[in-house]
Amino acid sequence: MFDVPAGSVMRSWTGWIRPEDRGAYTAYLERTGLADYRSTHGNLGAATVFRDLPDGRCEVRTISFWRTHADIVSFAGEDIEMAVFYPADDQFLIDRELTAAHFDVA
Predict the structure, then answer these.
(1) Beta strands 43-52 and 9-17: pairing type?
(2) Could you give all domains of the chain from N- to C-terminal order, each with its CATH number?
(3) Confidence of residue 1 (pLDDT cuts 50, 70, 90)
(4) In CA terms, which of 8, 10, 49, 79 is 20 to 30 Å from 2?
(5) What is the percent of the chain with per-residue pLDDT over 70, rounded to a whole number?
């Protein structure tokens, strides 16, 4: 799926939606966050994964890969730990993490 070299960085964010919003939210993410990830210099790819939970929510995780932490600044701003949100997020998200996690790729 991705050709991600060792030494790059994975950024992960998690939110929760209603299962019935999965299709609409997927399309919304493609137009907003994923499009912004992919168009930012240094991005190596981005995807969204979903899983339905026993409590009736659907967990959403965005995953993006970057050459360096410095490249993430171009997308997220100086504090790369802060999640990036878009105007219509409140229409879909019933809960969300306010931060993003970063992992070094081995």
Answers:
(1) unpaired
(2) 9-104 (3.30.70.100)
(3) low
(4) 79
(5) 98
Cβ-contact 9, 68 below 8 angstroms? yes
Phi, psi of 44, deg, nearest 5: -105, 0
- Give strand pairing partners of 44: none
C-alpha–C-alpha distance, residues 86 and 33, integer Å = 8
List, for residues 41-76, the tens digit of each pLDDT value. Answer: 999 999 999 999 999 999 999 999 999 999 999 999
Q: Which amino acid is at 42?
A: G
**Scanning the structure block, which residue is given the tokens 């105007």?**
87
Q: Rounded mean pLDDT of the chain?
A: 96
CA–CA distance, 87 with 5 (Å, rounded to integer): 33
Measure the CA–CA gap between 2 and 65, rounded to whole angstroms. Answer: 9
Distance of alpha carbon 72 from alpha carbon 62, whole angstroms: 14
